[in-house]
Design brief:
mainly alpha, elongated
């Protein structure tokens, strides 16, 4: 139980850190490329990057594997 609690807290701290970094524009990016773009290009790059981050986050949340009795799906299916 303690391991599960620490894992959940670690995930939440990671998400909170990502939110803080995104608000401060401190997330990973290719700044040298974006700086060379005109204002409209910078805005378009920002919108595209936000959409990609949202899609990646929601996609990984949907693809999260379920665990039965501590076993991944493939192992749990074999043991049924």
């Amino acid at each position: 139980m303690s391991e599960e609690l620490s894992r959940r807290r670690f995930v939440w701290v990671t998400f909170l850190g990502a939110i803080v970094a995104m608000r401060g524009h401190g997330h990973l990016g290719v700044g040298s490329l974006v700086k060379r773009l005109p204002t409209a290009g910078r805005r378009a790059a920002l919108i595209v990057s936000q959409i990609l981050m949202l899609g990646t986050t929601t996609g990984s949340a949907r693809a999260r594997p379920t665990v039965r009795a501590g076993l991944p799906n493939e192992v749990a299916a074999v043991n049924q």
